[in-house]
Amino acid sequence: MEEGDHNTKFFHSYANQRRMHNNIWELKDSTGEKILHQADLEAAALSHFSEFYKTEQADLISQVKVAHYYPSFFSTSDARALDSQVTLKEIKSVLDKFAKDKSPRPDGWPVEFILGFFEQMGPELLRMIEETRIRGYVPRALNSTFIALIPKINSPE
């Protein structure tokens, strides 16, 4: 603050450089053709993940029959715990374990913000989590945050 905004240009260029590096500028479709335009990139990603996560609709009886072939991963008490109500204490405990000084995206909130205002935000988070658990439905706005493509190499395709 004492230095004024002398560092602003440096940090702004650093953020822009990082944004440019972390973007995916081209993809290859199923035929190996390069896709370069933003609308086509979005359509290709949507198509890929729609196909990837597509599931066949099966009736409940056949799902139960198939489930018997899989090993049990949870004890009875673990299964009950998964079905029990979430508490504010549990949410706070999970948030305390998050990496600090990180932001989920340029306009996202760092976990320190949520922890700093936990008294105000905690009950609303709890309501959202419980509603999702009880209804078995994840709101579309929240669901859109589950998949992130993060390039780990230079010039990903």
Tell me about this structure.
The protein is mostly helical and 157 residues long. It folds into 2 domains: 1-55, no CATH class; 85-149, no CATH class. The chain is built from 8 helices and 2 strands. A two-stranded antiparallel ribbon has the order 1-2. β1 and β2 (34-35) form a beta hairpin. The protein is flat and about 50 Å long. The model has no long low-confidence stretch (mean pLDDT 76).
Topology:
Blueprint: H1 8-21, E1 27-28, E2 34-35, H2 38-52, H3 60-67, H4 76-83, H5 88-97, H6 111-116, H7 118-135, H8 140-143
Strand content: under 5%
Q: Write down the secondary-structure element order.
A: HEEHHHHHHH
Determine Rg (CA atoms, Å): 22 Å
Number of helices: 8
Task: Measure the end-to-end span.
Answer: 42 Å
Sheet with the most strands: spatial strand order: 1-2
* Low-confidence runs of at least 5 consecutive residues: none
Give a quick account of the main beta sheet: strands, pairing sense, barrel closure.
Answer: 2 strands, antiparallel
Number of domains: 2
* Broad structural category: mainly alpha
Count of DSSP strands = 2
The quaternary structure here is single chain
Helix content: 40-55%
